[in-house]
Amino acid sequence: MYTAALTLSNLSCRHAKNIVIPPLSLKILPSTLVVIEGSNGSGKTTLLNALAGLHDQVSGNFRMTGETDERSTDPILHVGHNNGLKANLTVKENLELFSVLAENQYLNRLKLLQQLDLFEIKDQLIKNCSKGQQKRTSLARIFIAKSPLWLLDEPFSSLDRTATDLLQNAIHNHLTEKGIVMISTHLKFSLPKIRCTRILL
Questions:
Q1: 199, 37 contact by CB (below 8 A)
Q2: Would the pTM of this model clear 0.85, i.e. be above it?
Q3: Angle 91-101/131-144 helices, nearest 10 degrees?
């Protein structure tokens, strides 16, 4: 079980001189799904990148805190538009790399490959995989990482029904373990019996 909460204090983001995200203050408690909605170019990706430390034109602050209100040192999981895969490694080798980085040596990678319908192409180079196969490989990090905060940028794009159901179940399980999930999406998305906060940009 996780215990960390996420607090945004007057967080805003710029591109050059343009304010993309106006000041935003919000406390997000454990077991909360945050759905970031908006049209293309509204700042959804920018907000997630800022929280992942990938956007440098940021003012205000944000922090993860534990039960004692001290800053959490737990890692953050970020799955963005760019899949973050090594094109010249195979599907299986990318999962092995994820496991090493997440220090999750106990993961049953073969079982995960089967769950994500990647077992038949496990020895195929990422650069030779379809967009959907690359997306599923990238999303494998969700099942590998041990992070209280998940930042997912359009995670359902290019997924078939089976993969979508698997991802929804993973999100639900993470929230029931008192994790936090922030999702950017064009779609209306919610989960039954789950606390949900919406940010419209």
A1: yes
A2: yes
A3: 30
